[in-house]
Amino acid sequence: MKQSLLPIIAHRMAILCYIVFALFPLFWLLKVSVTPNDLLYSEGVRMWPSRTTFDHYAFVLRHSAFPTFFKNSLIVSASTAVVVTVCASLSGYALSRFSFRAKYWIVALMLLTQMFPLVMLVAPIFKILSPLGLTNSLTGLIIVYSAFNVPFATFLMQSFFDGIPKDLEEAAMIDGATKFTAFRQIILPLTLPGIAATLGFVFTAAWSELLFALMLINGNAAATFPVGLLTFVSKFSVDFGQMMAAGVLALIPAGLFFLLIQRYLVQGLTAGAVKG
Amino acid sequence: MMTATGSINGHSVRKPWLRRLADASEPYLYSAPSLILIIVVMLVPLVIGISYAFRDIQLLNPFSGGFIGLEHFRELSKDAAFYGALKNTLWWTGASVALQFAFGLVLALLLDKPFWGRGLVQALVFIPWAVPSFLAGLNWAWLFNPVIGPLPHWLFGLGLMSQPGNILSDPQYAMWGPIIANVWWGIPFFAITLLAALQAIPRDLYEAASIDGANWFQRFFSITLPFLAPTIAITVLLRTVWISNFADLIVVMTGGGPADRTQIVASYIFTQAFKALDFGYASAIALVLLVLLLAYSMLIILLRQTLLNKD
Predict the structure, then answer these.
(1) Is the CB of B65 inside 8 Å of chain A's CB atoms?
(2) What pTM value is reported for the model?
(3) Are B42 and B35 in contact (CB under 8 A)?
(4) ipTM of the predicted structure?
């Protein structure tokens, strides 16, 4: 039984369209970032410039505040990812393995935090953090981002814990280990993919956050990448090559993390979908 | 750590109450760090935010802070910009969700059956999801910019534009800019969730249907769609709420302009808090948005219940 070729060709063409649509904007970002300034306008719509240069990158790295923004974003995102993953592993474990009276309320509270517009918190959070000296500080941002990401990360970790048979820790506890030891030494190592996925997810979320960073940070010293790039754009909206070079640089950490965790994330979501 | 030692001591039969206490408090100790974070940074500000809606809170005015009752809401009911933003929110959310869902479903169907290179294709088409939203916004703003981007020239070449102009500064079409950026950015989310649901459909159902002579469309409408329905319902509901709150792309691409034509409620709240520094008014708008979204969610859930009961 030979399948006709037409559906296969149509299928591959459709896939190709999606790939082009998904990648073209990023390709353009890269293209403009390596186009020398004198060719920028004369070869505006060409797919690839006749000469390429890395001058824009060199300028951004040497003569602008972007290395500071990059460092700030890295500190904020990495710290948030670690704080959230630790908290979410613990609370995810509690939700997965214990049945206790307040469980229902904890789940309800976490769902509630996913329902209301976070924009609503911009003003009160500013008012609370400002007398504590936590506005214009990376610590303030880390605290805020950690709280925002804990609920989803908890559910994510819970679904990974649910996938591990209970017998494992019961066996360990019969051998005399406490529940916490069993959790630390047996369950956590088995959830490493889940931990990686959570780390990556939270890192990317913190790396992308814009509105609270805009509100809580002013001045270059504590600015994260989104804020820095946006101020740069609104102040000097002429040097496209440099802006796009900065854009490509902003893409790198999030992109790397995504490639690392993409497999696990689809896996985790699949597990969730099978259950639901 | 206290619990761990407590339960070790509790092994002796002499102190069963200590062990009981340790056992009972264990889940709470595990949950405590997360709960403290959520309560301090989200729940308390939420309550304060709701109270701001009834107070006069302006950051630069030291004499503000008094209780003014429903004054903000009275003002809001006469605020033409708010009604415009409400209308724009409907348009922005409706178009974004519909297009993201349609393209996401097609992509999920394309990726459902194994083919050579599927893993790579999957990684490539899901990349937009990893792009930080502010960068997605800037990236598309640059693509729409006739100085630097190709899109205006292509649209001009196709005869869709009388001259290569910037769609983002055209009051009539400006909203399409953020919507297209949002669709580009959001397709992977729908594709991933729908793909996961598709893969959970038992394969033998399709085989049985093929043997009975059902064609692709019959199989799609009688097997695939009913199986996907719960996932579709929940993702569309969540996504609708989420997108109507999602102001990043608009703040980055148009800032609500030209002439407020792309201002949605979420970006209007942000503008009031960030630029006008009128926290009280911003909170009042946020409260209205919250109530509207809750009403919408309730409506969908009720609708779903009635539909389920009918069957």
Answers:
(1) no
(2) 0.84
(3) no
(4) 0.83
